[in-house]
Specification:
There is one protein chain. With 174 residues, the chain is an all-alpha fold. Helix content is 71%, strand content 0%. It starts with a helix and ends with a helix.
């Protein structure tokens, strides 16, 4: 599947294509882009198919750990933060402080990576006070959005999600 096909499916909210893609992954076929799709699909599964999300989250964790040495700077921390959040939501583990710490650490390792900045913005957006802040989230989303303007991000679902979060932050801050 191409980035364009996966992006189009995201825009249409047709995650069956994403499920097919994620189901086809194995440890030897992983790339940073496949982990990004897997991360997104796990979030979707938690929202819309929670009873079936746990095996996807377990596989995602295994894939992240298997790719630790080859991931771009900050991505291991970002993805492991997501794993902890997902496990918290399925009651598999309880590490909210560790999840937030890893997300923040990722921004220190990769302060110019739009995926990392957008992920931290998302963490701040959803975290309860005093850990979260819509104003601080907006700052991270806006920084990410500037970097997402580069042509290589044209078909990145996180770019589009970031634009949505910017609008939501502005609405909630009013």
């Amino acid at each position: 599947m191409t980035d364009r096909e996966l992006f189009d499916a995201y825009q249409k909210q047709d995650m069956t294509l994403w499920k097919t893609y994620v189901d086809s992954l194995n440890t030897h076929s992983l790339s940073n882009n496949s982990l990004l799709i897997e991360y997104g699909y796990c979030g979707y599964a938690l929202e819309y198919d929670k009873p079936h999300a746990t095996p996807y989250i377990s596989r995602f964790r295994a894939h992240v750990e298997a790719q630790r040495e080859t991931l771009p700077p900050g991505h291991y921390e970002m993805y492991m933060s997501a794993v902890y959040v997902y496990e918290l939501r399925t009651h598999e583990s309880f590490h909210p402080a560790r999840a937030m710490s890893l997300a923040k650490q990722a921004t220190k390792i990769a302060p110019k990576d739009p995926l990392v900045l957008a992920y931290y913005g998302t963490s701040l957006f959803y975290a309860p006070k005093p850990f979260g802040s819509k104003r601080e989230a907006l700052d991270y989303f806006e920084r990410a959005e500037q970097l997402f303007r580069a042509p290589k991000w044209k078909y990145c679902w996180v770019r589009e999600a970031t634009l949505m979060y910017i609008g939501q932050c502005k609405e909630k801050i009013k």
